[in-house]
Amino acid sequence: MNWTIADFLVAGCLLAVLGSGAWWVARPGRPWSRRLADFGMIGSNVLLIWINGAVGVIGTEDQDANLLYLILPVFGIAGAAASRWTRRARYLASLASAMAMVLIGGLALAFGWGEGGARWPVDVLSVTAVFTAGFLFAAWLYRQANQAEFVQAASSRAR
User: What are phi and psi of 128, to 5 degrees?
Assistant: First the structure.
């Protein structure tokens, strides 16, 4: 594979997003479950874009249906930003990402996108299952963080 300057720029941007996201998440003062969920969402989106750009999830990297996976980071960022990055918005954005992952994988299987791929449909099924589980785990962690922060706020008000 011959890498172009654009490939290096995209890889550099993905690494910059991952690094700055890790720095942002590591700030103290938040529950560990929320930090882990934030890093899981950032890491999952970066990894999905990286895998998709390198080899493609649906068939090969040249398959146009792979562009649908670029919607997932938009769900996470736009959904949370539209609600001013509240705890509930992050929870809902991770659920939306999981549902979108299942929808894209289901469409790929239903319409036979990437049928010519070497490991079709195993690649679509496995990537869909792994990333959906990751997004659902992040949603669960956000829910745990929400409950922990709610209990902490309620106990501090009671004093």
Answer: -60, -45
Token pair listed for 37: 């969920």
State how far the Cα of 139 lies from the Cα of 89, in Å rounded to an integer: 10
Q: DSSP letters along 19-30, please?
A: HHHHHHHT-SSS
The residue segments making up the domain with residue 17 are: 5-158
Domain count, the chain: 1
State pLDDT tens for residues 7-48: 889 889 888 888 887 887 777 777 788 888 888 888 888 888
- With beta carbons less than 8 A apart as the criterion, state whether 94 and 132 touch: no
pTM, two decimals, is 0.81
Those residues with Cβ within 8 angstroms of residue 10's Cβ, 6 or more apart along the chain or in another chain: 53
HSE-CB at 64 with a 13 A cutoff on CA atoms is 0
Angstrom distance (rounded) from CA 48 to CA 67:
11
Measured CA to CA in angstroms, residue 68 lies from 53, 96, 113 at distances of 12, 14, 12
Which tokens hold the place of 31?
Answer: 């529950």
Contacts with 132 (C-beta within 8 Å, 6 or more apart), sequence order: 98, 101, 102, 105
